[in-house]
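I need you to check the entry underneath: sequence plus fold tokens. Let me know what the token row says about the fold.

>
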Amino acid sequence: MSIWQSIKYCRTLNNKLVSIISLIIFNLLLTSVATANIAPVILFQPPPEEEQPESTEGAASRQHQQCTPDFVKSQQKRYTTPNLNLTAIVPDSNYGLTVAERPNFWVYLPKTSAKQAILSIREEGKIPHWQQSIPLTREAGIIGITLSKDAPTLEVGKSYQWALVLVCGNKPNPNDPVVAAWIKRVDKSSAMSYQLPSKTKLEQAAWYAKEGIWYDALSILRDEKTSSLENGNDTWAKYLRSGGLDKIANEPIVR
């Protein structure tokens, strides 16, 4: 082989090597992008039964979770429009965990004439822990309730019942629609403190969901949903369905 043939052969070999390396790098980049776009599966897994309070029964409403004028209107339209009632956004066990001192509470609110609602929290077997008023609009959908900064914090290891009352008149009445659910604050484990900071928000939500920490996973998913992530809506809906909330999984978040 002449020197010119050798040079030509080496150039050809180098070009092939460059093409192969480029192809490998391109495939690696595609794999990384595809992996980055795959959201973790976020499905709620109930906590152990021994964590639950003695009773997790919710509150019943005499007006089918609606103010009387709204109930009458809904009956007139029931054959044309399906009606959704006031609903606490909690698992079907009516109970969930949190690690937050002041967690967010979530309810589905149907279109209502009530101008305000009252959130009430009480420690299991004791007097009310906290109450605050929430102004309402006529818009139907899921609302998140953030506790005021001056609200006392939930204590680790204690269970609380929270209730939302629609104030149909000028002041609260025993016949006002109400829903109630339970929450227990648990301490952050060493594994949680070590692992979570390095995870993405959706990975954190998946971790909370696996541990039965309903409220914290829900709050993260709400933030991710409103940040317009491509898969945000679907992830949020799937999480609600995993808690037994199929009927309202696709309802809009209005606040």
Q: What stands out?
A: The chain has two domains: 1-33, 49-248. Residues 3-37 form the longest helix (35 residues). Residues 60 and 179 are 7 Å apart (CA to CA). Residues 29-36, 228-232 have pLDDT under 50 and may be disordered.
